[in-house]
Amino acid sequence: MRVRVTLICEECLSRNYQVTKNKINSPERIAIKKYCPKCNKHTVHKETK
Fold it and tell me: Residue 41's closest CA among 9, 19, 18, 4?
C-alpha cells in the first residue's frame, strides 16, 4: 500500500515535495537529500505528518 507523504526542508522548514512511499517496506520516516529552491542548495528533506 503506497501512501502520499510531504517532505520538509530541515534548514528553512518549507514544504517542497510530495512523494509516495510503501508503508510496508519502509514504516519509518524517510529522509532524502533534495534541492530546495528557497535555500538555493541541496539539503536534507524529511517526511512530515
Answer: 9
